[in-house]
């Protein structure tokens, strides 16, 4: 079960820097970091460790099964970023 980042993301990159598998992108040094509207979690690389959610001060990260109904679209948006 993967985590999902929603539009509440403030792009402080704390979660990306602490991700155990580097599943969160863009990283601060990637070209797309300036233009991306938020960060995204690759569902194929996320190991559900919880490092990201414990650091997210904007409450933008949810387990996929716990996504609020009004944020359900972000599961697909996170996956689409990587394909």
Short description:
The chain contains three helices and four strands, in the order βαββαβα. With 83 residues, it is an alpha+beta fold.
Q: What CATH architecture would you give?
A: 2-Layer Sandwich
Distance between the termini: 19 Å
Q: Would you state the CATH class?
A: Alpha Beta
Instruction: Report on the biggest sheet.
Output: 2 strands, antiparallel
Class derived from helix and strand content? alpha+beta
Question: What is the count of DSSP helices, taking H or I runs of 4+ residues?
Answer: 3
How many structural domains in the coordinates? 1
How many beta-strand segments?
4
Helix content: 10-25%
Shape: globular
Can you tell me the CATH topology? Alpha-Beta Plaits
Low-confidence stretches: none
How do the strands of the widest beta sheet line up side by side?
1-4
Into which percentage range does the β-strand content fall?
5-15%
Which whole number gives the mean pLDDT?
96
User: Radius of gyration, Cα only, in angstroms?
Assistant: 11 Å
Order of helices and strands: EHEEHEH
Give a written overview of the molecule:
- With 83 residues, the protein is α+β, with helices and mostly antiparallel strands.
- The chain has a single domain, classed as 2-Layer Sandwich (Alpha-Beta Plaits).
- 23% of the residues lie in helices and 12% in strands.
- The chain is built from three helices and four strands.
- It has a two-stranded antiparallel sheet. It has a two-stranded antiparallel sheet with strand order 2-3.
- The relative contact order is 0.31.
């Amino acid at each position: 079960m993967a985590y999902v980042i929603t539009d509440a993301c403030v792009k402080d990159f704390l979660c990306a820097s602490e991700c155990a598998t580097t599943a969160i992108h863009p990283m601060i040094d990637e070209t797309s970091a300036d233009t991306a509207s938020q960060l995204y979690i690759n569902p194929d690389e996320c190991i559900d460790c919880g490092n990201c959610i414990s650091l997210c001060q904007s409450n933008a990260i949810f387990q996929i099964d716990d996504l609020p109904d009004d944020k359900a679209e972000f599961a697909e948006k996170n996956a689409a970023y990587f394909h």
